[in-house]
Amino acid sequence: MSLCDPAKIATITAERGANPRVRKICYWLEMARKAGREPSSEMREVMSAVGWGGSARGELTADAMVRNRVLAEELGCLDEAGMSDLRRGNAPTIRCGPYVGDELSVDHIIPRSVCPELDATLANLELMPMQMNRSKSNSIDEEQGALAVKFYDAGFLSGEAMLRIFWARVDSVRDSGPRNGQRSCGNHLIPLVVLEAELRKRGVLKNEN
Fold first, then answer.
1. What is the domain partition of the chain in residue ranges?
2. How many CB atoms neighbour CB 29 within 10 A?
3. Which of 125, 109, 15 is nearest to 68 (CA)?
4. What's the pLDDT at 208?
5. What is the DSSP string of 73-139?
6. Which segments of the chain have a pLDDT < 70?
7. Four-CA torsion 107, 108, 113, 114, nearest 10 degrees
8. Measured between alpha carbons, how far is 34 from 125 in angstroms, rounded to an integer?
9. On the CB side of 165, how many CA atoms lie within 13 Å of its CA?
10. CA distance 102 to 85
11. Which of 5, 27, 80, 97 is 20 to 30 Å from the Cα of 56, by its Cα?
12. What gap in Å lies between CA 115 and CA 131, rounded to an integer?
């Protein structure tokens, strides 16, 4: 509860200051699982205790933290050494898969460079191999755009921040679109049109935009 308390998280001033919390939450969810409790139920009880029970904010946060525990398990980070690191908020060493030996870092799903407002939002933080983290770009893909709409509806994002994400998505489509003057379509145009329609429906995008 202390790690997930919105009031305490709101006092974080250091850049990426919530990252250790994500690792510690992962540790306690695994401890709950070992004690016979379901991590998803555990997180939802915590969300209720901090005042987010049954809300979109609580659901998004709970889902993200449960997913992180699963990722840590799949990468072999829940062994004795890994759990010791996680409990202290440190990065464990990956023991399974193509990233063996790498550190398990914490990354922003929607890039911090695009939306610094989400820097300490637990729902926007995911565990990821350090090498993969470093290779990520600052572009916004279709999945991130859809998540941003959920964040906006949940109250995690302002309209101004949502607009920045939308235009970052526009730039990403433009940068990855066809060359030689061909028209952007298919996998790029349709998702962007859908995102635009969702934002116009919510009044974030207006005709003058």
1. 6-135, 142-201
2. 24
3. 125
4. 54
5. HHTT--SHHHHHHHHTTPPPBP-SSTTTTSBEEEEESS-TTT-GGGTT-GGGEEEEEHHHHHH--S-
6. 177-190, 207-209
7. 160
8. 24
9. 30
10. 14
11. 27
12. 22
**Separation CA 118–CA 64 (nearest Å):** 14
Structure confidence at residue 85 (pLDDT): 98
Q: How far is CA 57 from CA 13, 75, 85, 98, 154, in A?
A: 21, 27, 28, 33, 5
SS3 at position 186? coil
Structure token digits, residue 4:
């997930």
Closest CA to 61 of 6, 140, 20, 11: 6
Q: How far apart are CA 65 and CA 34, in angstroms?
A: 16
CA distance 131 to 101: 11
pTM of the model: 0.90
User: Of the candidates 136, 134, 129, which has an alpha carbon nearest to the alpha carbon of residue 99?
Assistant: 129
Q: Quote the CA–CA distance of 151 and 109 in Å, as a whole number.
A: 12
Structural contact between residues 114 and 164, judged by C-beta atoms closer than 8 angstroms: yes
Structure tokens belonging to residue 3: 């790690």
Q: How far is CA 27 from CA 56, 182, 200, in A?
A: 24, 50, 41
How many C-beta atoms surround the C-beta of residue 121 within 10 A?
23
| pLDDT single digits (tens) 66-88 | 999 999 999 999 999 999 999 99
